[in-house]
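User: I need a structural model of Amino acid ABC transporter substrate-binding protein from Bosea vestrisii for a docking pre-check later this week. Nothing fancy, just the predicted structure tokens so I can convert them on my end. Input:
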Amino acid sequence: MRRLFVGLIAMFGYLVGTAVSAQTQSNALTGTLKKARDAGAVTIGYREASFPFSYLDARREPIGYSIDLCRLIVDAMSDELGRELQLKWVPVTSASRFDALTKGEIDLECGSTTQNRERQAIASFSPVIFVAGTKLMVRKDAGIRSFRDLNGKTVVVTAGTTNEKAMNDLQARFKTGATLVTTPDHDQSFAQFMAGKADAYAGDDILLYGMIARANAEDKVMVVGDFLSYDPYGIMFRRDDPAMAALVDKMFRTIAESRELEHSYNRWFMHKLPGGERLRLPMSAQLESIFGTLSAKPD
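Assistant: Understood. Predicted structure tokens for Amino acid ABC transporter substrate-binding protein:
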């Protein structure tokens, strides 16, 4: 009886200690990790037409390079919290993504978002996952080969993007004489251009190449000109959340060291994609250097 009593006391102490430990851990959590633990889920903001970073497959489900990386972040969050987190999906646009994040409507923004100093005042970002820049998509017979040929032309851009800012800055500096029109998202910009309502579409070069590949339009349109902006992409999450920032940084360093980050890149930019497209875009020397730095162990 005495042994049974001692055993019960020990078990009770263990259970109380475990409960106290769990409660202490829960109380210690803040920011995105606490929100995810309380909800049992992570809400991902995705883009419907940022191929091949974040877009909808034939079943209308989000897929892409950025989506894969966000799934890995959620896996790391699940490991940190000791419970499996569910995924909730919310579509966002170039214009709505920042408000959706700061208002808590999404926890991660997984698309083709450029991180720059202005945006870092609004949100935090993962390490760089891709480097793009603004270029022009034009019809092959349009006679447009650079921004200097845009006088009297109409250029469509997606609202809320760095491309829109780059074209406005270009107009202010060089007086290009172009008329800028905007649409809410990339697929609408591309549709307007393809319908002949714009002479050029200014967008991130990789997104333009992706749209051409998906539309099988290589014989009709092309991407021209110098880079008009520098656009390093990152996964976006809320600011002032050091625990989340540390988790994201650690996760990226881990997958860079294991070369899973490189394999993910190759899956979406070198190999045949779910819809049959193939971009055949080798990693740039700049991005290779960024990934190499991530995988380097500190001295």
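Before docking, keep this in mind: The longest helix spans residues 2-28.
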